[in-house]
């Protein structure tokens, strides 16, 4: 119902995505939940890769915090990275839905490693949607040729949710731009080959956000780009998060994305493609939590029986299952809307907000099922709790998501004649 | 009887061997198999299936031989239900050039035996004329370890079973196969055409990369029926019942050697 009322904005470069929603494989009255053969193959490959390459090493990367290069290289060699890059660049041009399938599988193994593998999605999104062919060939082509990483540098120490409040400046100097400022919490910050950087190009504080910012593609080796130390975080410790200082960084005009002043729209546009996959990452944690808790509950005995036979425990598992099934469907709907070429903001926010809450509750409940053992590092569930928390924070906090959802639904309600 | 003569010198030449690889769709090795309540067989409905692991090794070997230019064309074949197509797509994704599916109707599937499969394969060999057939040494569902040997006998071709290594012979006119046998390793030279069955240590199968999985959809997959091949699938065995292995009984601990000998005497196992 809201669909017909919300404005449908065609996102640049997404015309080819329409093919994905016109080929369902088990249509019952117009709806299908069945994966296509290709999607099943992708899911199987991702699942096998997770079991063989991610699960055995996840705990060790969580302790050391080292960047999982061997896993990344293997994923790259199998074609499991950069799934959405266009065919003309040598990519597979898969949709957001396919990205979600792979993300959920990797996240089941380790959401930190998953963030590393699929972190390129967020950095590449602005280029995919607003880059010129030359820019795409130069920067996205690199990602296909080698296992290189990129990063999305928008957040600052003083501005996370308040993107319009960022203070990094971009000043025109002849044909070039000079960027000065400080970014923070940038995923892949220390390992990226290039960054998407958002900076304020109009110093006048009265200029509206929609015109005051510009998006740039900045090479890592540009003089003045200084990634800070790797941050020591609670969870997703295999992922590389850093502050980055930009000191008189000179960027040529050809590295401007879109046109000067368009930056805010570009930065926000990226999220419509990446929020569903982030939700899928949360679903992966929820699935792992349920799996571990179920296995444990069947083995561990109290009062003479496996604890799974105590309803209090069984009900914890049931609630995890309820969360898992519904979160996955919400993610699928958001991905489907994006692949159909529609603006999926409302669905993407619903999916991300809900899935991140489900992941946190499921992980916490999994620790509960494990009891004292769950609190201990010898067992895999405490890591799930630590990893899950960030899903309520990055890619738009749960509070911001609720802001978006309420705005969308109120805008829809107000445009209907009562 | 079918006789196929090839110029042995061709093996070392640029054309390369034509390889036919057998793939069977079986219940996945990780699944806990359950016996049907009526004891007529095991539960297969809704159960995860995949390519027989020894057949994956056979496919991998064929692809490696292509990469080493020992082989020119590799064809995969599967005898099984409609879903065997998925198994063949996996083979294609690993690097096989084209596939043949001999489709067996569901009703006859449960009664299919190695003797039938080897006859079907022999018929296909008549038209395809491969230089080398590589099969998995056995399937993990029935553990028969018969199809390769039967096929070689039907074709009157040499066989090299339980292969852990396949390479050209010293003079490049034959294949030198190292076999894993009870006593250790046996190396033999076989002339082609031949049947080889793969053992565990022959190689480690590759992942199919995602781009290759997508490309596999476009590779040719031909369908055939047992009638077209003129093979009679009349069952020659009847399965009376399928049961779980007996539950392992608990053992008993003894305190000393004297106790142990005493217990063995009690059971009449020692005089």
Describe the protein's architecture and organization.
The complex is a heterodimer of chains A (418) and B (271). Chain A is built from 15 helices and ten strands. Chain A is of the alpha+beta class and 418 residues long. Chain A has three domains: 112 residues, Acyl-CoA dehydrogenase/oxidase, N-terminal domain (Butyryl-Coa Dehydrogenase, subunit A, domain 1); 110 residues, Butyryl-CoA Dehydrogenase, subunit A, domain 2 (Beta Barrel), CATH 2.40.110; 149 residues, Butyryl-CoA Dehydrogenase, subunit A, domain 3, CATH 1.20.140.10. In chain A, helix 6 packs antiparallel against helix 7, helix 11 runs antiparallel to helix 12 and helix 13 packs antiparallel against helix 15. The radius of gyration of chain A is 22 Å and the shape is globular. By secondary structure, chain B is of the alpha/beta class. Chain B has a single domain, classed as HUPs (Rossmann fold, 3-Layer(aba) Sandwich). Chain B is built from eight helices and eleven strands. A nine-stranded mixed beta sheet of chain B has the order 9-8-7-10-6-1-4-5-11, with helices on both faces. In chain B, strand 7 and strand 8 form a beta hairpin. In chain B, helix 2 packs across helix 6 and helix 4 crosses helix 5. The N terminus of chain B is likely disordered. Classes of the chains: A alpha+beta (418), B alpha/beta (271). Chains A and B meet through helix 3 of A and helix 2 and helix 6 of B.
CATH class designation of the largest domain in chain A: Mainly Alpha
Q: Which runs of chain B of at least 5 residues are low in confidence (pLDDT < 50)?
A: 1-13
Distance between the termini of chain A: 15 Å
- Which CATH first-tier class of chain B would you pick? Alpha Beta
Strand order of the largest sheet of chain B: 9-8-7-10-6-1-4-5-11
Main sheet: strands, sense, barrel of chain B: 9 strands, mixed
Order of strands in the sheet with the most strands of chain A? 1-4-5-8
Looking at how many chains there are and whether they match, the oligomeric state comes to heterodimer
Strand content of chain A: 5-15%
Give the largest chain-chain interface (CB within 8 Å): A-B, 13 and 12 residues
- Indicate the structural class of chain B: alpha/beta
Q: What is the overall pLDDT average of chain A?
A: 92
Please provide the count of β strands of chain A. 10
Number of helices of chain B: 8
Radius of gyration of chain B: 22 Å
Let me know the largest β-sheet of chain A.
Answer: 4 strands, mixed
In helices, the fraction of residues of chain B equals 25-40%
């Amino acid at each position: 119902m809201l669909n017909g009322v919300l404005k449908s904005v065609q996102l640049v470069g997404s015309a080819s995505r329409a093919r994905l929603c016109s080929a369902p494989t088990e249509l019952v009255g117009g709806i299908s939940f069945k994966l296509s053969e290709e999607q099943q193959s992708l899911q199987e490959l991702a699942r096998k890769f997770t079991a063989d390459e991610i699960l055995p090493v996840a705990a060790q990367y969580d302790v050391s915090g080292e960047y999982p290069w061997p896993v990344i290289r293997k994923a790259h060699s199998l074609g499991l990275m950069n799934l959405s890059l266009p065919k003309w660049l040598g990519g597979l041009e898969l949709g957001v839905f396919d990205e979600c399938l792979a993300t959920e599988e990797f996240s089941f193994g380790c959401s930190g490693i998953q963030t590393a593998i699929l972190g390129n999605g967020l950095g590449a999104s602005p280029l995919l949607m607003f880059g010129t062919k030359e820019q795409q060939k130069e920067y996205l082509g690199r990602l296909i040729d080698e296992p290189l990483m990129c990063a999305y540098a928008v957040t600052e120490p003083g501005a996370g949710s308040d993107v319009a409040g960022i203070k990094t400046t971009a000043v025109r100097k002849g044909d070039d731009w000079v960027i000065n400022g400080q970014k923070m919490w940038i995923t892949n910050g220390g390992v990226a080959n290039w960054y998407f950087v958002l900076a304020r190009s109009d110093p006048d504080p009265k200029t509206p956000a929609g015109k005051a910012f510009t998006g740039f593609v900045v090479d890592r080796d540009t003089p003045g780009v200084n990634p800070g130390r790797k941050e020591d975080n609670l969870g997703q410790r295999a992922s590389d998060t850093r502050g980055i200082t930009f000191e008189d960084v000179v960027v040529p005009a050809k590295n401007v994305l879109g046109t000067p002043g368009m930056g805010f729209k570009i930065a926000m546009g990226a999220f419509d493609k990446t929020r569903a996959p982030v939700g899928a990452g949360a679903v992966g944690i929820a699935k792992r939590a349920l799996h571990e808790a179920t296995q444990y509950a069947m083995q561990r005995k109290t009062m003479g029986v496996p604890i799974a036979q105590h309803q209090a425990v069984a009900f914890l598992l049931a609630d995890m299952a309820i969360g898992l099934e519904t979160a996955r469907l919400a993610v699928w709907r958001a991905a489907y809307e994006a692949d159909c070429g529609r603006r999926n903001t409302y669905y993407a926010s619903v999916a991300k907000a809900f899935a991140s809450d489900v992941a946190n509750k499921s992980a916490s409940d999994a620790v509960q099922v494990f009891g004292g053992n769950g609190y201990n590092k010898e067992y895999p569930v405490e890591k799930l709790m630590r990893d899950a928390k960030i899903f309520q924070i990055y890619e738009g906090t749960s509070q911001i998501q609720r802001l978006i959802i309420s705005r969308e639904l109120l805008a829809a309600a107000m445009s209907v004649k009562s | 009887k079918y006789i196929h003569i090839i110029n042995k010198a061709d093996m070392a030449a640029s054309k390369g061997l034509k390889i036919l690889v057998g793939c069977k769709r079986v219940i996945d090795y990780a699944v806990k198999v359950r016996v049907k309540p009526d004891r007529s067989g095991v539960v297969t409905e809704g159960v995860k299936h995949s390519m027989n692991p020894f057949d994956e090794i056979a496919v991998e070997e064929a692809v490696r031989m292509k990469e080493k230019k020992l082989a020119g064309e590799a064809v995969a074949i599967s005898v099984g239900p409609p879903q065997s197509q998925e198994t063949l797509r996996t083979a294609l994704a690993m690097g096989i050039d084209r596939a043949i599916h001999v489709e067996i109707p569901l009703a006859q599937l449960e009664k299919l035996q190695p003797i039938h499969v080897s006859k079907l394969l022999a018929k296909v060999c008549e038209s395809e004329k491969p230089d080398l057939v590589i099969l998995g040494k056995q399937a993990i569902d029935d553990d028969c370890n018969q199809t390769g040997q039967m096929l070689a006998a039907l074709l009157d071709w040499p066989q090299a079973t339980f292969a852990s290594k396949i390479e050209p012979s010293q003079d490049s006119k034959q294949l030198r196969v190292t076999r894993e046998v009870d006593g250790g390793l046996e190396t033999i030279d076989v002339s082609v055409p031949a049947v080889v069955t793969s053992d565990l240590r022959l190689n480690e199968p590759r992942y199919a990369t995602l781009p290759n999985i997508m490309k596999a959809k476009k590779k040719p997959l031909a369908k055939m029926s047992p009638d077209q091949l003129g093979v009679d699938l009349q069952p020659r065995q009847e399965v009376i019942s399928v049961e779980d292995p007996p539950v392992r009984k608990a053992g008993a601990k003894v305190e000393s050697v004297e106790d142990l000998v005493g217990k063995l005497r009690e059971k009449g196992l020692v005089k």
